[in-house]
């Protein structure tokens, strides 16, 4: 399937997303699961926990939830892979001097920064023992809003870099980086703080182990997507160029 068509890129994006989602799911099992279990133990030890002292079982066992989490990561990877391929197809007119692999990895790194790292700085992930259920909708709106704003910054940075193509690379990179840093600072200041405080009974080590592990899982998804997509697109693009040159 040619990489010159959107269908060819979409199929490669979906395939890369499935692989990246599976890798992220495995990171979730191997790295994130431990602090989740530690946080659940804290939550279940609270006097007002729903099953505290009564021994009621969960609707789904923890093992089932873990398997479901891996499957969910694969499904998310498929969706993100399709969006990634669409974004890659839309950005092909930019940075045409770069190899497809480099462009794919750069695009995934930008997406990770905008859609994962930026929200993680303002609204770091919290384990099950943190958060008031009554604020879930408000927190979700804040989180998604910051992701949307971050993606707009990434798109704007790409446009700016393209418009400044007549400048030398150091000047162009400095101008774009300065604009991105300024925009990120404005977003971090403008968005309100999370409404939920961290309970005093949750160990700080568990909290930060969960946050760093969650960020590692997200990074695996995005950067794995860029690398696998680049490996799928780059050789095919080079072959197509060799054939067309004959």
Automatic annotation (TrEMBL):
TM annotation in the entry: 9-32, 66-89, 101-121, 141-161, 173-193, 213-233
Taxonomy of origin reads: Bacteria, Bacillati, Actinomycetota, Actinomycetes, Pseudonocardiales
Which superkingdom?
A: Bacteria
Q: Which Pfam families does the entry link to?
A: CbtA
> Which organism is the protein's source?
Saccharothrix texasensis
Keyword terms = Membrane, Transmembrane, Transmembrane helix
Q: What is this protein called?
A: Putative cobalt transporter subunit CbtA
């Amino acid at each position: 399937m040619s990489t010159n068509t959107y269908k060819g890129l979409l199929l490669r994006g979906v395939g890369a997303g499935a692989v990246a989602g599976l890798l992220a799911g495995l990171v979730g099992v191997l790295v994130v699961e431990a602090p989740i279990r530690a946080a659940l133990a804290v939550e279940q030890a609270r006097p007002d926990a729903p099953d505290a002292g009564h021994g009621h079982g969960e609707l789904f066992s923890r093992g089932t939830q873990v398997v479901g989490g891996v499957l969910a990561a694969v499904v998310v990877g498929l969706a993100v892979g399709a969006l990634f391929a669409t974004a890659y197809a839309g950005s092909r007119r930019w940075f045409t001097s770069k190899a497809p692999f480099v462009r794919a990895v750069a695009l995934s790194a930008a997406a990770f920064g905008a859609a994962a790292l930026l929200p993680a700085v303002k609204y770091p992930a919290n384990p099950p023992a943190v958060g008031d259920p009554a604020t879930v909708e408000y927190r979700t709106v804040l989180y998604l809003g910051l992701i949307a704003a971050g993606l707009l910054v990434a798109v704007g940075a790409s446009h700016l870099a393209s418009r400044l193509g007549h400048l030398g690379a150091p000047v162009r990179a400095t101008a774009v980086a300065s604009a991105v840093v300024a925009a990120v600072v404005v977003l971090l200041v403008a968005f309100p703080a999370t409404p939920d405080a961290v309970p005093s009974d949750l160990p700080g080590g568990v909290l930060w182990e969960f946050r760093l592990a969650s960020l590692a899982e997200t990074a695996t998804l995005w950067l794995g997507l860029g690398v696998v997509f680049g490996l799928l697109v780059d050789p095919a693009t080079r072959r197509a160029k060799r054939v067309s040159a004959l």
